[in-house]
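INTERNAL AUDIT FORM
Audit reference: QA-55
Scope: verify that the stored structure record matches its stored sequence.
Auditor: D.O.
Record contents follow.
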Amino acid sequence: MTLGEVRFDGEALLERARSGDRAAFSDLVRIHQDEVFTLASRLVGDRELAADVSQEAFIRAWRALPKFRGDAKFSTWLHRIVVNTAWSLRRSQQRRRTAPLSDIFQEPAAPDRNPQDLAAATAMGPRLLNALAHLSAPIRAVVVLKDVYDWPHSEIADHLSITTTAAKVRLHRGRKQLHALLWDELGSDK
């Protein structure tokens, strides 16, 4: 199967789902469930809440699917729903956080890095995740979307209903706070 055929099948699946085919939408859920859960986990920092966010995001996507115009990729549109859902549920959720980000983070394999750099990155991972957990939710969301998912500032601003300038300011503040939180670890390695 060629890339064009895969793309066509995805578009056909999306069109079937848009017309109300639950089996097609179920296939879309299976295709995107890991990335949705990962994004939700990184935004809310709690596995149980991330599962709730993921489920609610797919419900909202199903309801809004007939309105999907195709101006953006389906995955981008779905990410926007996940971000909005995470914000909504996070604001309404008052229970304490039971699982830190370190429980859900897995260091990606990097075979082209030398073992010393890989060991340093692996050692820093839990401290970085702990520092991320100390950021406020609005700042953490911008840092995760920019530095982990590499979204452009304008897209972050659009998805979070803030200005591009506010997105840049939050990113700057987040990076500055992370630097302050990690200063001892970073300074001691020099």
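Auditor finding: record pair retrieved intact. DSSP finds eight helices and no strands in the chain.
Action required: none
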